[in-house]
Specification:
Blueprint lengths: L1 E6 L2 H8 L2 H8 L4 E6 L12 E2 L9 E2 L1 H12 L3 H4 L6 E10 L2 H7 L4 E5 L8 H7 L2 E4 L9 H12 L8 H5 L19 E2 L2 E2 L9 H19 L1 H6 L3 E5 L5 H13 L4 E4 L3 H5 L2 E2 L5 E7 L16 E2 L3 E8 L8 H10 L3 E8 L17 H24 L21 E4 L9 H5 L22 H5 L5 E4 L1 H11 L6 E2 L1
Parallel strand pairs: 1-2, 1-6, 5-6, 5-7, 10-11, 10-13, 12-14, 13-15, 15-16
Antiparallel strand pairs: 3-4, 8-9, 16-19, 17-18
Bound molecules: flavin mononucleotide and iron/sulfur cluster (2 copies).
Family: Belongs to the RNA methyltransferase TrmD family.
Subunit structure: Homodimer.
Pfam family, one: Fer4
Length: 484
């Protein structure tokens, strides 16, 4: 991340940013700081950059020309200019949009940011119109200049730049994440001023400590910032994923949205039979793999046991680099009919179970970056919806396609190797394996290959070499993950 700050007091910015964690990040090259003294661009021998306001009134106004020239000196050499664009330029002003966590995460995705710090009564409106892309306020109060506000923003944004915080620092529960405040902290000594550290923290029981922290965090938010609690939206990830590819992609997106998603594994038959009701204050991520361009056929149908109440949902169709065809539209139709509002959709590429070449290593770094951007977009949509309500998004494909027949894949079973542990019987998502004979009923089997993957004895295998050859001859070129 490159920061450029246009200011009359560069030392104020340099001293602050080059200290502590941001200072460490500058030294290690994770962020860079370039300050530009607007006064260096004055066009008079006294180096004045301000003048009296037209129309009279108190105070002075910064002139347009020196600000323009200072901005141009940055813009000309910016990364954005090389792509024929203007860099994102933030003007710190109490008239701006109030800085908050989603904005932090969104700005952290940029490669470079320009901050413009005003002084006196402000800056000539005409130059602001030409250079500023974002008007931002750090709170409803007035400062003597924009420098401290720029430092606040740089500090908050840098925490989200990869590598700025150590793993240990960034893995911590964050105040503001999930719209919850942090739980209280304690360190040695165990008793101070007669006050004992809460007993649960001394037990070493990780699960109990986590539960206590979550409870305290909710309690504290209720007490100190009830307005935030109103915005807290628990996320449930309802996924079908026989060989875990879809699950991994869903987990990546979930981790960008919340610290503590509830995972609902619909690969388990029992979980598909239980009706689950969601309120309008929740968020659902429904994820499934693509089978022949559609949702896998299960009994009862995927996601049909979920009931929303104007609950926003994101649908994810994970696919093996061929095509996802109708899957997203189908998922949206199933969920819309059950009280959900589809506010976003993702089609990431994952490894294809029938090929060692298609989708291997996906989601990769580039996919993760794209998923992160999508998560920020979803957070923005949710914030906007607090005012205007949720908007259902249009998706490609047929919402109710005619079912396609999938040719059975050749499977082998080595009875000698089998320990009769019954794992495949229990974990087959569609109950296609006989408990007594361990034979597969091909009329029921959906060819998901879960039984092969989970058999620890190596008693089951499949041969999809012909399918793999065919797919690889047509779909080897890696496809980009898509987001709506
Ligand atoms: C029966 C079957 C049909 C599939 N059809 C498609 C398809 O049409 N397009 C595609 O890109 N991937 C297809 N795949 C690959 C899956 O979408 C996915 O890559 C993976 O095999 C299953 O995901 P999971 O690991 O979450 O179980 C198919 C996989 C199976 C088992
Ligand atoms: S999981 Fe493997 S070992 Fe266990 S019953 Fe099935 S085939 Fe046999
Ligand atoms: S029997 Fe068929 S449906 Fe069941 S786990 Fe095996 S491949 Fe999947």
């Amino acid at each position: 991340m490159e920061y450029h700050v246009l200011t009359l007091f560069p030392e104020m910015i340099q001293n602050t940013v080059n200290t502590s964690i941001t200072g460490r990040a500058v030294k290690s090259g994770k962020i860079s700081l370039h300050t530009v003294n607007i006064r260096d661009f004055a066009d008079n021998k006294h180096m004045r950059v301000d003048d009296y306001p037209y129309g009279g009134g108190a105070g002075m106004v910064m002139q347009a020309e020196p600000v323009w020239r200072a901005y141009e000196s940055v813009r000309e050499n910016s990364r954005a200019a090389k792509k024929g664009k203007r860099p994102r330029c933030i003007y710190l002003t109490p008239q701006g949009k109030v800085f908050h966590q989603t904005m932090v995460e969104e700005l952290a995705l940029e490669e470079e940011l320009v901050f413009l710090c005003g002084h006196y009564e402000g800056i000539d409106e005409r130059v602001l119109e030409e250079v500023v892309t974002d008007y931002v306020s750090i709170g409803d109060y007035v400062l003597t200049g924009g420098e401290l506000a720029a430092c606040v923003m740089i500090d908050a944004i840098s925490r989200f730049v990869p590598g700025v915080l150590s793993n240990e620092e960034s893995a911590q529960f964050e105040s503001m994440q999930d719209n919850l405040l942090e739980y209280p902290h304690y360190t040695r000594p165990e008793i101070w001023h007669g006050k004992q550290v809460p007993q649960v923290l001394l037990t070493g029981a990780h699960g109990k400590v986590e539960a206590w922290r979550r409870e305290k965090s909710i309690e504290r938010t209720k007490e100190r910032r009830p307005d935030l609690l109103q915005k807290n939206r628990p996320l449930t990830v309802a996924y079908f994923s026989p060989t875990d590819g879809t699950k991994k992609a869903a987990e990546i997106l979930a981790a960008c949205l919340t610290q503590s998603p509830r995972m609902l594994d619909l690969t388990r038959r029992r979980n598909r039979k239980q009706e689950m009701v969601f309120t309008e204050k929740e968020l659902l991520l429904a994820a499934a793999p693509v089978y022949a361009g559609q949702l896998p056929e299960t009994e009862p149908g995927l996601f049909t046991n979920l009931r929303g109440n104007h609950t926003p949902c994101i649908v994810m169709a994970a696919y093996g680099n061929r095509r996802y065809d109708d899957t997203l539209a189908q998922m949206k139709a199933v969920l819309s009919a059950r009280g959900f509002v589809c506010i976003g959709a993702a089609a990431p590429v994952i490894p294809h179970i029938f090929s060692e070449k298609l989708g291997q290593g996906r989601p990769d770094e580039k996919d993760r970056e794209a998923i992160k951007r999508f998560a920020v977009e979803i957070k923005k949509r949710i914030e906007q919806a607090e005012e205007h309500g949720f908007q259902e998004i249009p998706l490609p494909g047929a919402p109710d396609p005619a079912p396609k027949e999938i040719k059975p894949v050749k499977k082998s079973f080595d009875r000698e190797q089998c320990t009769n542990c019954q794992a495949c019987v229990q974990k087959c998502p569609v109950n296609a394996i006989s408990m007594e004979t361990l034979a597969i009923d091909e009329r029921v089997c959906i060819n998901c290959m879960r039984c092969v993957k989970i058999c620890k004895a190596g008693a089951r295998s499949f041969d999809a070499s012909a399918t793999a050859l065919h797919l690889e001859s047509l779909y080897l070129q890696p496809r980009e993950a898509e987001f709506f």
